Amino acid sequence: AAPPTAGPGADGLTDPAGRVEVPAELTDVLAEGGAPPALALPSARALGGEAAEVLRTDPWRLLTVPGVRPEQADGFARALLGPDHDPQDPRRGPALAQWLLLRAALSGHTVLDHDTLVRQLAGLGVADAEAALESAVAEGDVVDFHEPDPEAEEAVEPSGSPDDSDSPDDEPDHAPPPGIRLYGLERWAVAEESLAEGLHRLVSTFAAERRDTASPPPGGAEAWETAARATGSPSAAELVRLVGGHALVTHTGGEAARAEIAELLVAAASLGLRAWAVTATDDARDRFAALLPEPADPPSHEEPARPGIATLAGLLAGTEGPGREAEGALALDLLAVTDAALLDTEAGAAAVESLADGSRLVLSGDPHGLGPVGAGRVLGDVLAAGACPHVASRTPDPGPLGELVSGVGAGELLQVEAPDRELVIVPVRDAGEAVHRAVQLVGDSVPRAVGVPASDTRVVTVGHGGGAGTGALNAALKARLNPGPGAFGGFDPDDRVVHTPSPGRAIHARVVGADADGLRLESAGRTFVVPRELVGTTVRHGWAVTAHQALGRRWPAVVVVLPGDAGEALDRPWVYTAFGRGLRHVSVVHGVGPELPRAVAERPGAERHTRLRSLLSAQAAEAD
User: Fold this and answer.
1) Distance (Å, rounded) from C-alpha 340 to C-alpha 346?
2) pLDDT tens-digit profile of 350-383?
3) Adjacency order of strands within the sheet including 457-461
4) Cα–Cα distance between 2 and 15 in angstroms, integer?
5) Are the CB atoms for 534 and 556 separated by under 8 Å?
6) What architecture is the 412-484+540-602 domain classified under in CATH?
7) Residue ranges of region Disordered (predicted)?
């Protein structure tokens, strides 16, 4: 269904998508500070109905609006405050600390350590970064933590004093600091703690139910062992056995390993459990559904319940899945998260909170690719903490593409044999040639040589900008595949697009039309409207996408574009993700020379800074 469209408010400015009214007072204060009118709507969303008063009281709160940078907020404050403006205004430092933590979250971090945050604040001109952090914590905008330092040779109990942390000026022979001081925003702090507590609740209540012989859970050990022996692979059998006796299990593997989760669901359903799997995208949901057995025709009353499959977003929103029981928990006994490597902290917390006591949870994913778009790394932290039994699949991905991707995951760029043109390398000299060859591959070579039409092919590149970014590639691909005047904000019917309604969320869609309400898109059989006010900022052409936009999706054919200036941006998870998007064929438009094997061998990807691992480890220590 299309998003609701609101009529104009009393001030004549209303957001049709979210029914957010933009008061005239807000537009006035933004104009007074020299901010562009386009910031009115996101400011109202970020700061609420009192946005105008908030900005007059503290102009640097403009930094909470997505996309606003410190220099822009400084200019706004300078214009708004006039002669009262002071570069060392005590309001500036705390606002910058909050902005730095928001920026870190966009890179996947739920926390930053003390020294990093102090250094970054100093780099933004904050003379007393320590005081700024103390003020941010006191105001409740930032949360601070003391964590044990795993590298410290001696365990020292935290003293609780904010002056006891280490600093770049400490002498190397000083006593170890009282652990590591971390800072985060309440949003992610609450989510990580809720997630850790929820996982502990599942494990403890499951164990308690198994000790209750008066009402044992479905399926005894013997039944689970019988189900395990009926599976088709050793990895699937191991998984079924472990899930039979544990509330929380992790499972890792490539695309082929998804079949093991399907076998687990079938086994659990045969034992009377309400078993469901969730995926990150509708595309992954449809591919996983194909792994489940077809229902009997005609249906048999003796046939066990069929496992369910949904997207995680649909399950949590209630638009997909089994629904909820009277007390609010999901009406299921076993939940398998099949794209758990893409599970961020907030989504993980929401999923675990939705599970009833005694439920089973399987976190299954491929840890070699790019991580979640949101902050956190749930699967990685649970694995690192050793919080539960783990199954590492021994089922390899098949064919030359499977061999290629498996090698990348191990840090090696293999030369693979591709007798049926599953893999083609196309060398190029510059970005212009890269765009030309990519368009040629999508529009001519791949359909002719591989039999995959252009509509089933996607181009994956490193970023949006540059001579061979998504902008340049999509302009060339549109001219070749769907030329038109761009009658509605640069879009025409049948254009492939990516809609980003919120940071990190990518909906792949097709333009089906436009009217007074906005741009009409179709995705996964559903038609919806993007209001015209939001088209320019939330819709991009989508024949070419970034690897992050491609997460959770695969296409019959993929063209990976690596222009010469992309070498330093590449790392192993990026290459693994990009090369793994093709089901039948991958073409690599290769302009980075030796940077590609170097990225695979030497750049394992940046670590995310989170608290979940330490929270889970602390739980385990208390249990011992």
Assistant:
1) 13
2) 999 999 999 999 999 999 999 999 999 999 999 9
3) 423-427, 582-590, 555-562, 457-461, 544-546
4) 14
5) no
6) 3-Layer(aba) Sandwich (3.40)
7) 148-180
